[in-house]
Amino acid sequence: MSSSRERSNAVAADYEWIKGDDLFEAYCVTLVRGVTPREFMDRIGAQIKFDSLPLGDEEYLDEKFSEIFYNDWTDLHGDGEMFIGATTVTGAGGDWTLAVERNGYLGMNATLMASVSAGTTLVSHSYCLGEGYFRWFEDGDLRLEFQAQDAGDRWGSTPNACLAEMQQIGFQLDNHREEVGPTNTAAFALAERLTGVRVTDDMLYGDTVYLCGTV
Length: 215
Prior knowledge:
globular
């Protein structure tokens, strides 16, 4: 992972733009190296949602994406299903898949993501109802896991592998701290340092097209 870290010096302040965006009030973002969106969907067992997307099996992450998600949310959760969109982005070492969920948690399913990360790198983070989580996998191995509000407590096979980067980013690592410090903005910055992928407003809401499905 050294090459990806060399490509980015991201800090929490670089992601201040996510504040005020309703997507990030409850979200899950997953990044997987060298896996196409279609392969990602296959790995998570997704059913491509052709019937409700006017562009066939792809859609822009805009108001239509949100409308589809919110209209289906009650029925999907009632059936134990989730809605997810995936696209190709450039990061360290080549192409990565960026998967986005509104109020979803597929990327936080440790068993599923360990399987998805077979042979590659996977980083996921989420935020909902005041709690944020972060996970980093390498070929099925959970290297790092922590709750963004309590980054002083970390788990995984290498829980201190990113300690210096986390300090530089702005995470509050002292369990006796008086302030929580940055949480989801810091999670985005750490994900960028591990993957080389800088998530931007244009990436999410510009001309990027997402393959969408349900799991």
